[in-house]
Amino acid sequence: MAMYFTVDLDKLAARCLYLDRLENTWGRRQVTGRIEKFRAGISPRIPRVYPH
Question: The pTM is what?
Answer without folding.
Answer: 0.66
